[in-house]
């Protein structure tokens, strides 16, 4: 009987030790994340920087005869990218897809109507 009690105590002690180690590791990871967030300050992207990036991407994509075009979604007030074929001026791809953005805007409007409506 005494053996069972001492075995139980050592099991609890080892579990407590493991729990303490895990909490210390979590604290270290959280500290590293905070430090990383502090070092990577968010700078607002200027129009010039964006134009430089787009120009560089268009140069990179010139071998495939396509270019990037930034479009503004009026309802969501967000930009999306279209990849346009230079020869046919046809849209090859939209990132994210415009129809998905349209559905998102419609759902947002619908939810807003439900929430804003007086009962």
From TrEMBL:
Pfam families registered for this protein in UniProt: FlaG (PF03646)
Protein origin, superkingdom: Bacteria
Region span, Disordered: 13-46
Biased composition (Basic and acidic residues): 33-46
UniProt KW keywords: Cell projection, Cilium, Flagellum
Biased segments, Polar residues type: 13-23
Record-linked SUPFAM superfamilies: FlaG-like
Entry keyword DNA-binding: no
The keyword Transport is annotated on this UniProt entry: no
Gene3D superfamilies in alphabetical order: FlaG-like (3.30.160.170)
Protein name: Flagellar protein FlaG
